[in-house]
Amino acid sequence: MANTPLRMLRLLSLLQNCRNWSGPELSERLEVSPRTLRRDIDRLRELGYPVHATPGAHGGYRLEAGTALPPLLLDGEEAVAIAISLRTAAGGTVADIEETSVRALAKLEQVLPGHLRRRVNALQNYTVPLIANGPTVDPEVLTLLAQACRDRERLRFAYSTREGAESNRHVEPYRLVNVARKWYLMCWDLKREDWRTFRVDRLSSPYATGERFKPRELPSDDVAAYVAESITTSLARYRALVTLHAPVSVVAERIRPRDGILTVVDDKTCMLRTAADSLQWLALTIGMFDIEFEVHEPPELKEYVLELSARLGRAVAAPAEPAPPVPW
User: What are the alphabetically sorted keywords of the record (predicted)?
Assistant: First the structure.
């Protein structure tokens, strides 16, 4: 890359998107010599970007928090305002932008000076939303998890299940997914040697171990769908398979992520895999789609739907009688 300004912007982008880079890796990415790379690093430092260099065989370069915010990006007031907005959005009070907010917050807090970070924390700690939907998650925990996913760094944390069972986990984190206003961490559990999904509000004392890992092949190309299916079916008492007689595009407009996973059968039909602890809840969820359907499994759901349909039929088949007077 012969164009110096473009090369420096590319270098800055690389430093922001990965915690550590070795010199040879950066030289290869930028297609420059080690000497040119060192000059570009010095130029970034002159502009105020705190690039730290570690010597030795395992050394490299990384962008750290400095004493001043890097110039030409944001001033202090803008940085505080954006950090507060991102933390609020990451907490789930702004719909549909949570995941983007966490990624942006991880980049911003990496270089946010200490005195500005204290202002952000003060504003966050002493402002209270009127309504909080669902469990809350500390944005600093989300930031730590997002950075570990980005840097491919192993994590340790304590975890509490829905039943209250406690355990310590050692994992390789891959993705953070927001489903139904709850955060989930998809990762490889090193002890159990399998993919696991953890509710972030149920984990505590997370910390990055400093151990790097090579990425594994993901269990699905659609990570969000995989997480939604795993949290829907993993702990539920009943797992249902239902054919819905409507195009998948129509059903998708009526279904929530926690309601299950849709699969196309043909242009007029789709399949729903869902789960719940209650047959009544399964029947209610499927019935509220207002679509013709067939239940394939479990047998208990088939029996309950037959019983429910008979009960509803009796409710309208009996001869009409005058309604008793209602006292007001």
Answer: DNA-binding, Transcription, Transcription regulation
DSSP state of 320: P
Q: What is the pLDDT of residues 156-212, one digit of tens each?
A: 999 998 778 899 999 999 999 877 667 899 999 999 899 998 989 899 999 999 999
The Cα–Cα gap between 261 and 226 comes to 9
Residue 152: is it exposed, middle or buried by C-beta count within 10 angstroms (0-12/13-18/19+)?
Answer: middle
12 and 46 in contact (C-beta within 8 Å)?
no
Q: What confidence tens digit (pLDDT) does each residue in 285-321 have?
A: 898 888 999 999 999 999 999 999 999 888 887 666 6
Per DSSP, the three-state class of 21 is: strand
Query: Peptide bond before 71: cis, by omega within 30 degrees of 0?
Result: no
DSSP state letters, 102-120: HHHHHHHHHH--HHHHHHH
Q: Could you confirm whether domain 4-63 is CATH 3.40.190.10?
A: no
Residues with Cβ within 8 Å of 299's Cβ and at least 6 positions away in sequence, in order, are none
- Asked if residues 45 and 111 have their Cβ atoms less than 8 Å apart, the reply is no
Query: Is-contact 60 20, C-beta < 8 A?
Result: yes
Residue 270 CA to residue 315 CA, distance in Å, equals 31
Q: What is the dihedral of CA 306, 277, 99, 14, to 10 degrees?
A: -110
Assign domain 236-315 to a CATH class.
alpha beta
Would you place residue 87 in the very low, low, confident or very high pLDDT band (cuts 50, 70, 90)? low
User: Whole-angstrom Cα distance, residue 69 to residue 316?
Assistant: 71
The whole-model pTM stands at: 0.52
Helices (H), the chain: 4-17, 23-30, 34-46, 76-90, 98-111, 114-125, 139-151, 223-233, 248-252, 279-287, 299-317
* CATH number for the domain formed by residue range(s) 139-220: 2.30.30
